[in-house]
Please model this.
Amino acid sequence: MRLTENALKVLKARYLLKDKSGDVIERPEDMFRRVASTIASAEKQFGSDPLLWEDKFYELMTDLRFLPNSPALMNAGREIGQLAACFVLPVDDSIHSIFDTLRNSALILQSGGGTGFSFSRLRPKTDLVRSTGGIASGPVSFMKIYNTATEVIKQGGARRGANMGILRIDHPDILDFIRVKRNENELANFNISVAVTDSFMDALKADTEYRLINPRNKATTGSVKARDVFDEIVESAWETGDPGLIFIDRINRSNPTPQLGEIESTNPCGEQPLLPYEACILGSINLSKYVRRASGGNKPSLRDIRKHIDLDALSSDIRTAVRFLDNAIEVNKYPLPDIEVMHKGNRKIGLGVMGWADMLILLGLPYNNKTAFRLAREIMRFISTTSKEVSAGLANERGSFPNFEASVYNTSGMPGLRNATTTTIAPTGTLSIIADCSNGIEPIFAVAYKRLILNTELIEINKYFFKIAREQGFYTKELEEKIIREGRLTGLKEIPPDIRRIFRTAHEILPDDHIEMQAAFQEYTDNAVSKTINMPKHAKKEEISRAFLLAYEKGLKGITIFRYGTAKGGTLVRFAESD
Model:
């Protein structure tokens, strides 16, 4: 295997097996063989040859064309055996439910999973507690308890604890929720998002009031101007990066099993909406591996670009990856029986991508380019269509997911499906370091920069830029030192303009273009898309407001804003802890 120094650092710190003294006792090849063997063992129960598929899975991973989510790499073949990254647990309006869920989330966090919660069912503060005659403390107070517990639990867990906390926009305590992370000491182990309804967006557009509803008895507790609440969301997002928004009605319109209940929450990075007790196993295809050769010309056409993408190889790997993820459900050791029932009932998997920015660089396409947006739709449509074909084929071999008859797919003429969902786009924070590619569908963060992963400072230098600089004859040692110091190419006139355009960094790309790219991928993604809308430090609140409104208009299921320089510990959670 050809692994970078940074990849080896991450693998040794987090993934490779260690003895009782903490010394690494496993090579990267051994880790991938352990994972491949465990996942392929599921083939036996379906009459296929496990050794054949073990070799296919091993080759796919060791060539870094596909990687499963972090818990699969960490736990496959080990006693813990928990392979899923994403979970959602219910929080009902009782002390028993609140603390049972806290106990259950501890088991998930210890196994390396991330957990999402909706606190929208909890009665608001000052509401009556009939059983005691006391006064309720409200959802934010219980979120603080969960946060403290996570702080303790994560010390013994497989990786940093990550939670998503969600509250509906019509909950009476919504303003407390929106403002809570303005105190940087609060909810450090949570990302938070407001579940925004269509009716709220209608009220915002009409500049009218909307109703606040007590979840205990569905009574209206008052009304408030939508614009006032929206302005508070913008203020907090500008100040801290939280809350994000999830468009909950849009998410439920895509719910493949509405008869089983409503989706209330997502995983910590927002890309995986799930029913209560559902889980999902994710994996990502490294798109940089499917560019046959660099595309020529300053403005390549989409027709020309298609010639440079090996769709046959991509199709073959999608088929292997979907089978891998479906097998993982069979061999997974679930932390709770209720989660096993739900996950095996719907069999949700989430195949996504990483290396997207690298693919664009190799094709000579700027990230913020109309052709790049069109290509994004084409690539994700191809992945979606192919993954559904594989899922239908697996349904013929192994049977449709058990809840198929209660799903939206159960219509005349539709084939059976093995999986209720097949596609999700995760951030791939640490996975992209292992694969030596750009993360998720993000643009490059910088041409050269330092990043802190697992308390280790890693220096990241874009491998493509200096290769191109040497090939085109403008490389100098002085230029290399300048770029490593500055991190980006802006103002460097010794670099050709077309090269500067191709290597635009996240903070040089307008929010509208970030959103356009997210929308392009979301159009053909079953679940949702993890994407950070980067803004410079000098960005105004009006720009954040515009981004939120544009996200809704463009059909996104959620949006996260990060203004450079804001004190947001949660960004590290979103970026690195949902692989």
Q: What stands out?
A: The longest helix spans residues 370-398. The radius of gyration is 23 Å.
